[in-house]
Amino acid sequence: MFNGIFFVLKKSYEFTPISNCLLGLVFGITYIAGAVSAGPLTRWLTGRGISVRALLAWLMVIAALLNTLPVLAWYGFSVEARPGLAWMMWVFSALYSALSGIMWPIVESYLSGGRTNAQVRKATGIFNVTWSSALVASLLILAQFKEEHKIAAFGLVAITHVACLAILFYFPKQPGAHAHDAHRSTPPVYTQLLAVHRVLLPMTYLVMYALGPLQPQIMSSIGIADNMQETVGATWLAARVITFLTLGLWQSWHGRWFTPVVGMTLLISGFAACVLAPMLGSAPGAVAAFLAGLTAFGLGAATIYSAALYYALEVGSAEVDAGGTHEAMIGLGYTIGPICSLLPLAAVSAGIISKDAGNPATLALTGGLVAIGLIHAVRTKNKEFAQTP
User: What are phi and psi of 173, to 5 degrees?
Assistant: First the structure.
């Protein structure tokens, strides 16, 4: 839903890039609200005898019901009435994003709960490959829906939520406590790397959600046909899966500083190639630059995410709050990213800058914010080094 909705709304409700950026902003605000409330909500419910597993089950049911709203709005009204129902997509997106913000910290508490350090590493690798593979599959499936029936994909999401309830039978009622190996303590550098990656993680999602709402527009401008856009959009998701798999199997990166350096370099260079590709027109070189940018982008995003989640669970605990902080950082990127695309688009619309200057302005604004984030990350690193005995 988070990755495909921009393509769907462009075609079904004729959402403009500005509309998509505003929708991305809604995602971010409501996702943060959900993530920071996950811990308090879980404690409040468990204090009243409701298990964490039961809460997850209810979240899945509500998510399934929410995903029926776009389908009912599209097929339950006449073709003439459909444009007037676009407001429902805003309501749906806000509610579903908040629900996701609550759900993921709970899932992550099960990920590390009851596992030792080595088991956390293995489980995190499997977890990342699993959810990222699902996103690749979802965009490829979305591409198979006819243009006039893209909205029906939300019905498939609803069915998937219901089907996944069966998995919860294998969950314990409560996530276990984080179990460190008795013979091994967490190296001090892990704490330092966690502090740095908590800065870099929102920067990653800032870049991701600066690019996400613009992807349909960029693809159209370089000559990629509408019926191929979801498939092309899966490129960076596929690169992310490969990176998750690699980092899950190859664990020598743990405790190393090259991970954030390589990850951010790939992320920014990939983003730059994507947003500047339209400057090459609709030539094959523009498509090649865009695909190369998406690939580098996916490699960098996966590197930063893998490290951020690993250190959050390794240094932190199995408490929902540990995952809540991790997801709130993601939500911060969700929120700021669309603004980086929205402001240049608004400037183009108002005639302040030319259309050709829109994407370079997006790159400059996004790059400037990331640079500030990187400076803060370096200062955080130095501060943690000073405090570590």
Answer: -65, -30
Place of tokens 């591409």: 143
Q: Are 308 and 178 contacting, i.e. CB atoms less than 8 angstroms apart?
A: no
Measured distance CA(26)–CA(31) in Å, rounded: 8
pLDDT in tens, 154-197: 999 999 999 999 999 989 998 877 555 544 567 788 888 888 88
Gap between the Cα atoms of 202 and 190, Å rounded = 19
- Report pLDDT for 13: 85
- End-to-end Cα distance, the chain: 45
Burial of 89 (C-beta count, 10 Å sphere; 0-12/13-18/19+): buried
Asked if pLDDT for residue 129 goes beyond 70, the answer is yes
Q: What are the residues whose beta carbons fall under 8 Å from the beta carbon of 172, sequence distance 6 or more?
A: 53, 114
- Amino acid in the structure at residue 293: G
Q: Are the C-beta atoms of residues 322 and 111 closer than 8 Å to each other?
A: no
Residue 206's SS3 state is helix
Q: Where are the alpha helices (DSSP H) in the chain?
A: 5-12, 17-46, 52-75, 86-112, 117-142, 153-163, 188-211, 215-221, 229-233, 235-249, 258-276, 284-315, 320-349, 358-387
Question: Hunting for tokens 């089950």 — which residue is that?
Answer: 57
- CATH number for the domain formed by residue range(s) 5-387: 1.20.1250.20
Give the chain's mean pLDDT.
Answer: 86
> 35 is written with which tokens?
């993530």
Tokens 């097929």 correspond to 75
> Within 80-116, where are the H helices?
86-112
Q: What is the pTM of this model?
A: 0.80
Contact 135, 237 (CB under 8 A): yes
Residue 161 and residue 261: Cα distance in Å, rounded? 37
